[in-house]
Write a structure and sequence with these properties.
The structure is a homodimer. By secondary structure, the first copy, chain A, is α+β, with helices and mostly antiparallel strands. The first copy, chain A, is built from 10 helices and 12 strands.
């Protein structure tokens, strides 16, 4: 639904459409994400602190995908109306869950709106970041033959990673300052669909190698009950919040060889394929067959 | 509930607390408001376009209360999940309701997040404004003996004004550029309580004259069924979104005499009392009795 809705709003309501994870405006980057109960979290199934943490971290991941430095947030919350005490406790837990990330990245809260209503919990955070002298990463900058890199491991984030992931801020800043990166996106809806977004914005296609995709342990665990393969989880599960990067072949070789992210931040960097002038989305399987890579992933229905 | 919650969050979660309608940060002003179905609007009782309009206008009113110039917004919406068509239509109407204000004040949409969920409609807008060379209006700048001025007419906004009010942007910019204004706030929760906020932040009290309070026609209409007097509506109804201003006595005299806002923008300016070194909140009634002015108003329970 969302894609169609955004498309129509773009055409009909004059809304500026953003190809990137955050908008560049007035020398800063800006992004907003609204998380809702039942869609982004089940309040009865997860600690409230982790809900608070996630609602902030998803925004920080967008800032990281721009290669920018998060500086400030505005936090709007509507609490389910139970009774004052429960609300206070819930609000405090949400903020307590945000606090370590705010502190770690030295982010200031510059605005807030906290209300109660008779429906579920909603948290909307606007995040603002500063732009490095090197500029920002964008989705449309990939070039044909650029290597496709991804941070971390993918798939199965529904188990816990969706709440515990570390936004790749430090990694993005390091890469932006020290390496040539042509394009970036964070994996919010799934590797295949987010890779498709970079390819489409850049006017390219991709060919990736299924053997090289870093599969998370949780993807394997999920596959035991889902009747889907671990690789399918890695390709189409949402909320990994890892970065997909496009880098020139030589630059990528250096990065893969020296693994600076692993050495500095404990974050593995994997080479999974390359962008192609041909606009097809392709995946090479272990048995050497080449198939169409469907841009599947989580869609906010 | 909200006041207590904010107080505790201030103390316990390290959240920056904002004395003003918007925060000054990085040379701009920032504010966020989240509007929710059933609290800020009843979707079945009002045109969706007006819901969209209101959700933007309340933020613009905050920018106006700072004497700043709105420049950009980020809009996050969670739509009730009915079916795609209904959602598209609702989203389009919301944006259609915002469009005239965006156009009138030349405001850019620099970010958005539109989702669906199984609960009511939520709209959270972050607004950003630029600061005039004259600086911003703050709540804590009132001085003893400053005249209290208010724009427009007050009370009964629940009838329609809450959706149709014009944020006092043009008036605030004019006043900031041409007159000495010591403090300002917009009336979101009610004249008495918002006046109390300025007095408290400025370390002052007030005495206002009930005969001089500009009473809206809608306050009179409301009083016919509410068993409350029109003046009570004007004092304690929320969502007037008029400005309360503190101005030096001589400056206020000039403003009242020449009524520049009325001549330029059609907006009446009334003198309703003064700030006092004595911290009492007082109201002089028609019969010359002086009573305590209770800081009553709408509280987001």
């Amino acid at each position: 639904m969302e894609l169609e809705l955004i498309e129509r709003l773009r055409n009909e309501s004059g809304m500026e459409l953003l190809g990137d994870d955050a908008a560049v405006w007035g020398g800063k980057v800006f992004t907003v994400d609204m998380l809702t109960e039942g869609v982004d979290f089940i309040l009865s199934e997860v600690e409230s602190e982790l809900v608070g943490r996630k609602s902030l971290a998803v925004n920080l991941s967008d800032i990281a995908a721009m290669g920018a430095v998060p500086e400030a947030v505005l936090i709007a919350i509507s609490l389910p109306r139970n009774n004052s005490d429960k609300n206070l406790l819930l609000a405090e837990k949400l903020y307590a869950g945000m606090k370590p990330l705010l502190k770690k990245y030295n982010i200031k809260i510059i605005g807030g709106d906290t209300n109660c209503w008779d429906n579920g919990l909603v948290i909307s955070i606007t995040a603002i970041g500063s732009i490095l002298p090197q500029g920002v990463f964008q989705r449309n900058g990939a070039k044909a033959n650029d290597t496709i890199l991804v941070t971390g491991e993918l798939g199965g984030s529904i188990l816990r990673h969706q709440f515990l992931f570390e936004p790749r801020i430090a990694e993005a800043i390091y890469l932006n300052q020290n390496h040539s990166i042509h394009a970036a996106i964070d994996i919010s809806d799934g590797l295949a669909i987010d890779l498709y977004r970079v390819a489409k914005e850049s006017g390219l296609g991709v060919i990736i190698n299924s053997d090289t995709i870093p599969i998370a342990q949780d993807a394997i665990i999920c596959s035991q009950t889902s009747r889907r393969s671990p690789i399918d989880h890695a390709l189409s599960d949402g909320e990994d919040f890892e970065l997909i990067l496009a880098a020139p072949e030589e630059e990528a070789k250096k990065l893969i060889k020296s693994q600076p992210l692993l050495n500095r931040f404990g974050t593995k960097l994997s080479q999974i394929g390359k962008f192609t002038a041909d606009k097809n989305m392709l995946i090479a399987n272990s048995d050497k067959t080449i198939m169409k890579l469907e841009p599947k992933g989580f869609e906010h229905k």
